Amino acid sequence: MTRIGILIGSTRPGRKGEQVARWVHERAARRGDARFEVIDLLDHPLPHLDEPLPALTGRYQHAHTRAWADTIAGFDGFVMVTPEYNASIPGVLKNAIDYLYAEWTHKAVGFVSYGVRGGALAARRLRALCELLQMGAVAPQVSLSLDADFDGQGTLAAGAHQAGALDTLLDHVVARGAQGPAAAPAPRETDEDAIRRLVDGVTGAVRAKDTEALRRLYAADVVSFDIEPPLQHVGVDAKLKNWARVFATFQDVTYEIRDLVTAVGGDVAYAHGFGRLGGTLPDGTPAGGTWVRVTLCFRKTDGAWLITHDQVSVPLDIPDGKGVVDLEP
What we know:
- This protein is an alpha/beta fold.
- It folds into 2 domains: 3-183, 3-Layer(aba) Sandwich (Rossmann fold), CATH 3.40.50.360; 191-323, Nuclear Transport Factor 2, Chain: A (Roll).
- The chain is 30% helix and 30% strand.
- The chain is built from 8 helices and 14 strands.
- It has helices at 17-28, 63-73, 91-98, 120-132, 160-179, 191-207, 211-215, 236-249; strands at residues 3-8, 35-40, 77-83, 108-115, 136-137, 142-145, 218-225, 233-234, 252-265, 268-280, 286-301, 304-313, 316-317, 322-323.
- The strands form 3 sheets. Strands 1, 2, 3, 4, 5 and 6 form a 6-stranded parallel sheet that branches. It has a 6-stranded mixed sheet with strand order 8-7-12-11-10-9, with helices on one face. A two-stranded antiparallel sheet has the order 13-14.
- The longest helix has 20 residues, at 160-179.
- 32% of the residues are buried.
């Protein structure tokens, strides 16, 4: 039977989300076309997003992420219950959504919001986020006003018209969820998207000190013009030795690439941007790092993009022959 999760999007003390979710569940339980279960974020305490690799990769490193993924993967659709905080959704809900990707994609979702204006702005932001994740967001939604749909003590007292709106929302979520994810078209990833995902994979693997993950992202014959001598490093093993020296230097590694510009032509591509490598030294001293220029070349082999060349450089002060390392993009 189709499983629909009713997700409580707030963990704030005194929240109204629990009674709203209970109202949704009690109304939904009268139906015989799906099984409804409440998902309370209080039962899934997730730290601020701490996964080293993007959720798109599906390679979750932490036990709390894998447990959360197992919970969400079991549902065919969702009713998300959200308050409106400062014209948007609670940070805890955004964080919980950001942890995953495939577990959300192509699944049905409907929205029940509440707030001074019915939580309309929060619902709008949440809809945009879910559509970005390729979820099947249904058009009907329920907006509960703190003035009209709650009594003076803050207890939910939704009228018959809101119950009717909820029934319509549930009709659409169940029908869409019953189709299953396979009924939705697979997202088409462009070559530019694949290359940016590959670069994100590099930065994530460096932060995680994961040399085996890095090995999968470079071509076996990669040529690297790294900032360290010699003039070139040939082959993936030589490249990984450079990264190994970085990992030995820092206790914790930070790495970012920004302002990335990509260009693709057939089975080859290039990208350029600015990178900064830093971290914490073994004695606990923070090292903020220096901005450098980064150029990457790619080749598509058997349908997968790999890095075939990279180059890192800093500007040179020609009169004194020294590199300029204090510039920022």
